[in-house]
Amino acid sequence: MKTEVSTPDDGTVGLVSPGRGAGLRDVLSSRFLLKLLVDKEIKVRYRGSVIGLLWSYVKPGVQFIVFYIALGIFLGLEQSARNPGGLPNYAIYLFSGIVLVNFFSEALGNASRSIVLNGGLIKKIYLPRELFPVSAIWVSAIHFLPQIIILIVACLFAGWTPSVLQLAAAVVGFVIVALMATGLGLIFGAVNVYFRDAENLVDLLLMVATWASPVLYAWTTVRDQLGQTALNIYLLNPLTVGVETFHYAFWMPTADQTQALPPSFLSLWVPIALALSIVTLVLGQLLFRRLEGRFAQEL
Amino acid sequence: MPISIDIKSIEKRFVLRHTRSMKETFLWLLKGRRGDLYKKFSALEGVSFTVEQGETVALLGFNGSGKSTLLKHISGVMLPDSGSVRTRGRVAGLIEVGAGFHPDLSGRDNVFLNGSILGMSEKEIREQFDSIVEFSEIGEFIDTEVRFYSSGMYLRLAFAVAVHTNPDIFLIDEILAVGDEPFQKKCLAKIKELNEAGKTLVVVSHDLDMVSKVCDRGIVLERGRVVMDGEVGDAIAHIRAS
Lengths: 299, 242
Description:
The complex is a heterodimer.
Chain A (H helix, E strand, L loop, with lengths): L2 H4 L17 H6 L1 H15 L9 H20 L15 H28 L1 H4 L8 H27 L6 H31 L2 H15 L7 H8 L1 H8 L2 H14 L13 H28 L2 H4 L1
Chain B lengths: L2 E14 L5 H9 L8 E14 L3 E5 L6 H9 L6 E6 L3 E4 L12 H11 L4 H15 L14 H13 L5 E5 L7 H16 L3 E5 L3 H7 L2 E6 L2 E7 H10 L1
Parallel strand pairs in B: 3-7, 3-8, 5-6, 6-7
Antiparallel strand pairs in B: 1-2, 1-4, 8-9
Helix pairs in contact in B: 3-4, 3-5, 4-5
C-alpha cells in the first residue's frame, strides 16, 4: 500500500496568502511597531526647532487668545458687569471646546495624509496599513494630553469641583471623538491614495468643524435662532456631543452649574453619538480594506 | 520537502495614465463612461511555479519583465488580479535598501523601527541587537542620525537588520550591487549560511555572475510570462542568448 495516495498533504498544508491581514486587529497585535511609529513621529516632528514640543502649546494658546479677545470681549460672549447675558467663565468654556476640536482636527488631518506620506514604505514592505492612520491619531492624543492638563489647572483656579458623572462624560466624549477621527481617517486616508482631492476636502471639513460645534458660542443659540428641529440635527454631529461633554465636565462646575445641557443629552444624544462613531469606524475599516489591495500600485 | 512558495496562474494588470482628480472621473461618468478612462498594461500573465523549502531561486529578465512585481506579490505588498499566491512562514527581504529607515532617527532607533517593520518582535530585536551592530560594522556611529551615514554604512545597517529577521523566505531585490567588495563577500557568505539553515531565497538581480554563485534555479521572465524555468546556468545562458 502506498501511503502517498491516502495522504492529502502534498506539501501545501500551512501555506497562507500574503498581504491579506485582519485589519485593525493586526494593529493590536503589532503594538510594539505602533509604539515605535508614534515615537518616531514625536521625535521627528519638532526636530531642529528651538522650542520643540512647546509648539504644541503655542499654537492652541495663540488661537485661544485671538478667539477670546475677538469673540469673548469684542462680540460680547463673555459675561461681565456690563454684559450680564453672556457666558460666565467664557475663557474656560472656549478652551475646553478648543482642545477637543484641535485634537480632532490634528488627528483627522494627519490620518488622512498618513497613507500617502508613508507611500514609500507601503509600496515596498507589507505591514498592516491601518498602523499609519492609527499612529497619527495616537500622536494627536499625545499632543492633546498636556493641553488637557493646562485646562485642568485653569479649572482648578476657577473653583472646579466636578462630579464623577461629569468626568466620566468627558472620557466618553473623548472616546466618541477619537473613534470618529479614526473612522474618518481610515476613509479619507484610503481615498486620498486614489484622489488627492480628499485631503483638500478634509481641510474644508475641519474648517467647518470648529463652527459646526458649540466651541465659540453656546448650543442655546442654535435652538433660539433656528428652532428645535435644527437643534436635533445639530446634536447628531458626534463632535458637537463630544464638545458638550467637555463643557459639562470642565466648564459647568466652574460656572456654578447654572447652565443647562441640551434636553435628554446624557440619556439620548451621548449614546447616539457613540453609536454613530462606532458605525463610522466600522465603515472606515470596511472601505479601507476594500481599497488597500491596490495601494502599492496607486501610490 | 514542503512547499515554501506556491504561485498559481497569477495575472496582474496595471493602470496607466491614472487620473488623480475627481473632476476627470466625474466628466467621464457624465459622458456615459465613453472611452477608456484607464489604459491597462499586463505586468504578469499566467505566472505559475512552486518553490520548495530551501531552494535558491533567481528571477531573471530584462527591465520591465515583471521580476520586481512578482517579488512584491510574494511579499504581499501587491495582490494579484486573479490566481493565487501562497507562502509559508515569515517573508522578509530587502525589497529596497533602507525602506523604512528614517533619516532623522539614530541608527539604534532605525534598527528597532526597521526590525519591527520587517516583523521582528521587541524581544527578538533586543536579543539580536548586538549581533546586528557587529555585522553592520557601524560601531560607535550607531547613535548618530542615519542621514549622516555614508551610503555604504546605510546599506550595511539595512542589510544587517534584514538578515537578522530570521525569515523563512528571504527576498532580495538588486541589493548586492552596492557596498564594497569585502562587505559583498560577507553578505554572500551570510546568504549562503541562511540557505544552509534551510531558508528559501528568491533573488532578483541583473548581476548574472553573482546570481550564478548564489542560486541553483533560475526563472526567466519576459513581458510578464515565464519563458524558462530550470538550472540557473541554463537560465543565464538563455538571457545571454536573447
